[in-house]
Amino acid sequence: MAKKAKNDGGGFDRISQFPDKILCRILSCLPTDEAVRTSILSSRWRYLFTSLCSFDVDISRLFTDPISRQGFAKFMVRMLYFRSESLEHFRLKRIEDCYLDFGRLYDWICAVLYRNVKELELHISDWDCDSLDDFEGLPPDLYICKSLVKLKLAIPFRPPPKEVPSCLLAHLKEIEISEFRGDIHLLEMIAYFLLNARVLEKLTIHMNCLEEQKRFSMTNQVLSLPRSSRNCQVVTDIS
């Protein structure tokens, strides 16, 4: 008869007896740093976080010194590339300092695209350092990603690429853009998305950064852009 796992209080740890798949689902509901801390509390859970289907990474929650953050960044890249399972969701948010350069950020994005991520969410527009000017946009790996169906972005946009990503042509169904300020490159990218995303169902643009008159003008301009998908709904939000 299999032994039952005991918890620290002398009782039985019923949760740890769940199948790995269910435990991974539980950990995937937590921010990544909390999932990692939870995993190391028990030998039964120790390596489960490497098989998570969803990652929610908030750099500001992880470490306070640059050396530890760089070490975690390298660990994340190795873990993402060498896992066997596909990813459902990856969110990277609140990068507010220069402890991680954009090269490392590119490594993470490329790794999750390599693992056939379905939903990708990036929040890096609040990077408050001069290196933001060096950001060249999303990596070329996005152009050949066939799994991506949902993309949420708060990033500094650059002119649209010449090559149309395959995910836009046949897979991408939902795009959400935050912190829209009427930037010409971002407007060009929105036009690019609408023109090339053939199965796009919804494009949401958050315009809470604009004054009312500017918001009204930008909304009319966006709604007048040609769309490749007849079923695409364009939503402008101010919340």
TrEMBL record:
The family database entries (PROSITE patterns) matched by this protein are listed as:
FBOX (PS50181)
Q: InterPro entries this protein is in? A: F-box-like_dom_sf, F-box_AtFBL13-like, F-box_dom, FBD, FBL60-like
Report any Pfam family annotated for this entry: FBD
Positions of the F-box domain: 12-62
Which PANTHER family does UniProt cross-reference here?
RNI-LIKE SUPERFAMILY PROTEIN
Q: What is this protein called?
A: F-box domain-containing protein
| Natural source organism | Corchorus olitorius
